Amino acid sequence: MKVTKDLxxxxxxxxxxxxxxxPSRIFAVLLNxxxxxxxxxxxxxxxxxxxxxxxxxxxxxxxLLYYYxxxxxxxxxxxxxxxxxxxxIRTGKILEMVESAxxxxxxxxxxxxxxxxxxxxxxxxAAYEEKIKRSTEGAQHANSDLDMVDGEAPPAAKKANLPVKxxxxxxxxxCRLAEAELVDVVHGLTFASPEDIQKDVEERVTRVxxxxxxxxxxGKTEFEEAVAMELCKIRRESKSLxxxxxxxxxxxxxxxxxxNGGVTAxxxxxxxxxxxGDPVLDPRQVIRVNYEKCLVELRNRRxxxxxxxxxxxxSSYVYGVVLRQLTKKVSRCHTDPNxxxxxxxxxxxxxxxxxxxxxxxxxxxxxxxxxxxxxxxARSRINKLSAExxxxxxxxxxxxxxxxGGDDEDDDESDESDVEMNGKHESEDESDKDAKSGVNGTxxxxxxxxxxxxxxxxxxxxxxxxxxxxxxxPFIRQCANEQxxxxxxxxxxxxxxxxxxxxxxxxVGRQGLRLVRILRKNGKLDEKAxxxxxxxxxxxxxxxxxxxxxxxxxxxxxxxxxxSRTANRTIFLWYTDTDRCIHTLLNNTYKTATRCLQxxxxxxxxxxxxLLLTKRTDVKGREKDVMQKEYYxxxxxxxxxxxxxxxxxxxxxxxxxxxxxY
Amino acid sequence: xxxxxxxxxxxxxxxxxxxxxxxxxxxxxxDRLYNQNxxxxxNIIPKNxxxxxxxxxxxxxxxxxxxxxxDNRMGIAWRYRSREDAKKYTSLPNNETxxxxxxxxxxxGDGIWSRTLKGRLKIHESVLKTCIKYxxxxxYITDMKSVEHPNKKMYIKANxxxxxxxxxxxxxxxxxxxxxxxxxxxxxxFNFIRMKSAHFREGATKVPKKGVAGGAGAAARGKKRAATxxxxxxxxxxxxxxxxxxxxxxxxxxxxxxxxxxxYYPTAHEIAEFISISGITNNTTLSxxxxxxxxxxxxxxxxxEPVVVGRRRGYxxxxxxxxxxxxxxxxKEEEESGEExxxxxxxxxxxxxxxxxxxxxxxxxxxxxxxxxxxxxxxFQRWLGLE
Lengths: 662, 387
Hints:
With 662 residues, chain A is mainly α. Chain A is 60% helix and 7% strand. In chain A, a hairpin with a 6-residue loop joins strand 2 and strand 3 (76-80). At the A-B interface, helix 16, helix 19, helix 22, helix 23 and helix 24 of A face strand 9, helix 11, helix 13, strand 11 and helix 15 of B. Chain B: It holds the Pfam family RNA_pol_Rpc34.
């Protein structure tokens, strides 16, 4: 992650907002000065070692630091870790995502983890046990609702104010989170910076495998592979909990059964399961939130939103299912160039995951009716070959797909008979579902009575998949017959471009966007060619281009035709650099988020007296009753401003995620 | 040379000149080039006498009936000029005027800039002026405006129409870009594509629970719609009108995409056909290329997108689900106010552009402790509704 001035400022402010000024100042210094020892830090910050140690402890607890202990001098140096610092902004979104995907109790555990930073399992348990003890009677009442862990009955959370009701439930939630990779394990090297790890591993590999040094091209690749293997091993370390769970055979399905059994146990039917029944959960294990996997989930959500924007809601639901299936095994959005070279056979799977139509169908919620969201047309009006074309290779990312010449490769594969068969089969299934009370025979009859409507659920589903594949944005690709995959890198590039285009359109209008897209398609263009392509007045074009040059969306190159370099003997070529635009936009987004935070502190400073009042213990919690109306109004207004600004920061983060992380 | 020829057998040469000229006019338009062999092969000159041919051609050139040109492929060659045109040349008072007229003539439909004339002929400004004035009063040439060089004074032969390059094609009226015409056409094309490339679901129709009847109905409606539209000449703006008489308690109307592989997305050719049949552009004819240009603009604007189905390159509206159906009341209002509404779905927005910073004119200067800083920001104040 490249840290720009604005990002550094933002990270420091975020830490300040959540953990206070002391860690924030130390973090800012570390970002500005780079790796420093305690003594150096004392010099830079003019703080006492005691203060520094306090601050560093907080930072380490939240994984905001890397440290390195030199074996010879026995001194520790500290380095800022900007990624988790930035991720603080994302807390709310991650919690919301977890809640919608796994239910309120899981969210509660996640929230505790986010607040506590890395935590020992036993500590977490102790904290929860304490809470549970305090409101036992409430918990006992709500016990019958415990099966909401399945994520289907979150309203139960409202009834009892404690979402997690037993240590057993906590245990299962942690397992569940670990299995979803949303939580991983902290190990010794978590606090070593990637550069240190890389250096260490390289040294070790040279010592062990290449004592005579690395020689030749072949040796170099071998060396790189060996290093990558080692690095992967270290990376896999943090997944040890998940692996242990899998090895012990405590898969999701089994545990769910266990848990349900547990519920009855608490109710007194079968009481021989003790509270921490899962033996794999070592109480000394330290766990933390795995932001990388959270990002994958967030990316899925954003892509679904994108699909809904471009095509339609029903298709986007289908797309959501596809993405969920595909990303089950995907641990991170970006592959690491150091680790994922070649086909490493890593368990994370650098190979592209694939999902079949039937798998999608199996996971499609029954509430989604795929017959919606698509117009129905006669079969004769459909070019089946083109719609169902199989594209075994991902499109060339260098080729600009926008308006590009159509490569019409018609694969002659036709799976008509297959489709037909599946279709019939499925429609039967569906009618079963429809006529819940009816027997198979009647359902069959219904089907015969309506020969016009032969399309079953799977056919309709397929139609949505084809539609997604056909779109200008390559949402999905049929890589083999009935097998689907998503080329995330290319897709995200489109998403980024769309985000940039939105900004361009809002800043310089539709005509500006038109010009930028013309440049994007044609590369560099002479000033004189633009008006005729864009069908705009010459003066309008010139004004727009100037406006956009100031905004940084386009740039000009001067090519003199002779040595005199006079203006009328010079060719002016306009061009646009999309990558650079995206980088600038990213940095501006950091800056905007920073401004939001700074503005917030301005407002807080202004209303200092009110805030001081609300901090009093006799006022806290019942501000409205206790405070004078005038004061309370000011307080409410401040809360309003705070909500707006923080909400807006979330939206900025959404953009940062698209532009940088996905 | 000419005087020598005139001395000897003038009558014979005169006859041959006429015969050769007539034969050349019979063999093609005035654009055709003849080289020496072509002329000999016309079988006018007896015994293929080259010196005689020389005399005849020279005579014709003197009469301005032949124009000598050089061609890369054929070498030196001639083409003929009509007798009326030639008469114009011979009626000119002096050589300078003839030369000026010749250059303007050669420039053809693109016209020629007066400065170029001066540079090529190396004659004095005042001489050039009198020549041009004479030609203009005679009605041989006229001034024109070129789109490419709006500020240059250009001349063109009076009986020629400026070429497309000079006028800018159908998009220009009186050498001004006709933006109203273009946006009007864009609107028509967009509406046409919208009508043909997305299925319009009326808000009033209730989709039955399992969609059996509704599905069939929708399919039938979809087909009918598409079939009638081909022959219909009505304005496409009227197409989504059904919303207007929808039931009062209607559900939200929306557009639905066609399944993948839909073979009837309109192509540029079909759009051009539609425009020419509808007669919207009554005094300008739009070629398919012109229409393609408009379609490309719509693509660049992100309103439509190309879809390649098989060998067919059709177009459909982008972001179909976000498309809002035309509201009859709103349309009327616009008509009355004379304001053009924005085409297509509402623009995408994101957090950045909605924050004050995203459109702040002094964003670059803004810094804590600087003259412009977050604390004294007026835009934030307004945005937060504190003013």
